[in-house]
Each structure stands twice: as C-alpha cells, then as structure tokens.
Amino acid sequence: MSEERDRYDVMEYPVGIAYYAFGAAYVTHWLAGSPDLAPRGAMSQGDLFADQQIRRETLVFTAVNAIGFAVCALLTAWLLSGVNRRRPWDAALFALSPVLLFEGLINWDLLAVACVAGALFAQSRDRAGWTGVAIGLGTALKLYPLFLFGAMLVVCVRRGQVSVFVKALAAGAVAWAVLNLPAMLTGFEQWKVFWSFNATRGPDLGSLWLMASNLHHAASPDTVNLVSWLVFGAACIAVLVLGLLAEHPPRMAQLGFLIVTAFLIVNKVYSPQYVLWLLPLAVLARPRLRDLLIWQACEIFYFASVWFYLGGFTAAGTSGATDPVYLWAIPIRVAGEIFLMTMVVRDILDPRRDPVRNGRTLAITPGGGTGQPTTLSRS
C-alpha cells in the first residue's frame, strides 16, 4: 500500500468518493479477467497510459462508473417523488432536466446528490435519525450536504423541535465518522489532502474570483478563503433571519437551495457539474418548469462555454488571451441562479405563490408550531 501511495497522487476528494472509485476499479479488474498486476508495477506511468489493454480497461472503468451514476439518478428520482406525496410528478423535473443529461457523467457528484435526496425524503417522513445519516454520508462524499443541517435547524426551531435537530446532527456525525475514521487511522496524511488542497488552491474554473483575477488581479488563496467564507457566513445569517421571520415556516428544500447556491456563488471554484448539487433542491424548492428552464439555460450556456474554453477552440486556447465568451458565461450562470433564488425567497415570503403550498391547508401557526389549519389563497 505504501508503494502505491508513493507512486500515485492522492485523490483530492473526500473518502466516500475514494471508496467508490476503488470499488469501481475492483469491478473493472474482475470484468477484465483479473489480469496479473505485478508486471504493471514495474512500468512507468507513461507506459501504463499507452498500453492498449489498460486503455480498454479504462473504458470499462468509465462504463462501470456510468452504470453506478445511472442507479444514483434513478434512486434520486424515486426519493424525490416521495418527498411531497401530493406532487410526486415533481421528480420528473429532475429526471428529465437538461443539466442532468449534459453533466451527470462528470465526476462522482451524483453520489452525494442521491444522499441529499435521501435526506429530504427522510425529513419529509419525520425520520430525524435517517435524515442525519443521509447528510452524514453525503458529507463523506462532498462537503456541501453538510449545509443542509443549517436548513434543518431553521425548520426545527420554527416547529419547536430542537431535540429533533440534535438527534439528526448526532446521527450525521456517527455516519460521517464510520466512513472517515478508517481512512484517518490508516493514512491521516492522505485523508487530509482534500482539506489541504482546497485550502491552498487559488481561484479556479467557473468562479467569480477567476473572472475578477482575469479582469483585475489575482487575489491570494488566503484572501479568497477569508472573503468567501465571510460572505457565505453573511448569506447564511440572511437565510436564518428569513427562515425565522417568515410568516409560515419555510420548507427544508427552499432553505437548503438558498444556502447551497450562496456557497457556490462565492466559492473559489465552480466546476460545471456542481449544478447537480442544486438540482434536487431546486426542483423541490421551486417546481415551476419555466423558472427551472430559465435557470438551466444559463447553466447550459456556461457548460458549452467552459468546454470550448478548455478545448482550446477559443482565444484563450489558441493565443493565451482572455476568452471574453467564457468570462461572460460566468456572470450569466450566476444571474440564472440569482433569478431562481429570488423566486424561492418570494415563495417563502408569500406562500400563496409557492407551487407546493398554493391553495393547500397547512397545519401550522404563524409562529411555526402545530395548531389550527391555515388556508393559503390568493387575494
């Protein structure tokens, strides 16, 4: 094991993804006929990548991962269909979404997406423990599911159920530890690569920070870290105030969408597939086809721009000059997200506009606890 660690770079992802990638590699090895790996240990990395048999195995590895992602997508759609029992068709907005088609096979993000859907499903059934477990497992795959605890805290406070939140938080911590402790105990330096890599990297693809560095000057990683976390913290406080002061308690998907979107907007890297983080939250927070298509049109414009940029088909790829199309794609993408955030905030402030709650009888009181039903209708 130590020889492999010395020879190859450590994955800059949380351990949950490393486990999945190892499992996919094991299946690939089995499907390839379990070839002897000893001779490959003496080959250089360049020779390994040039070997035709290994290239074929790489295609098999890609197919194995794709099948796993398809299972995650199907599981996510099924879970989303059960969150709002009166509106199971909202899950179709996930399953048929253009961004899922274009970006579902990039990286391993769909694993965490399935965990987020599981958390929303469990929360809709008042299963606090399972909600926490799903968030904990998701956080072992990607950091962003952790932010759902913020949304859940607001919901629980409004309902007067803080103990429910504490139970979910404890379950989440245990689930996260079960996946992380083995890696921490057997290779702590490798385990912390995800954290150290993200702490030291500078502005990267898709971020407003990258746009600013191209138009003005690049900020240091420390400056970017400090400012982005401060702005994100302010955004979280704003969501907290919104959730506590709204006349009716917001839904967890609404608050979760606002928090995760705020994180992505201010983050120093915004890879194309990160839109998948928002997808299950968006289709439950604002299940209106028009609004979702407006948002996803901006995402697809960015998707096309970034791959033209990386492929060297634009000015940046041929002459090293700044690519104006790509730089414009970044704020256009952010504008689409801010548009959808605005719609969600409006729904929270005026539940009569909320597609999920419009015209429904809610067994809640203005303070957020249980009480006599209140009918929402347009005046």
Read across the widest sheet, the strand sequence of neighbours is 1-2
How many domains comprise the coordinates? 1
SSE succession? HHHHHHHHHHHHHHHHHHHEE
Portion of residues in helices?
55-70%
Which parts are unreliable, with pLDDT below 50 for 5 consecutive residues or more? 361-379
Computed over alpha carbons, the radius of gyration is 22 Å
The profile of the biggest β sheet is: 2 strands, antiparallel
Q: Name the assembly state.
A: single chain
- Structural class assignment: mainly alpha
Strand runs, count: 2
**Percent strand:** under 5%
Mean pLDDT: 86
Instruction: Name the shape in a single word.
Output: globular
From the N-terminal CA to the C-terminal CA, the straight-line distance is 68 Å
Number of helical regions: 19
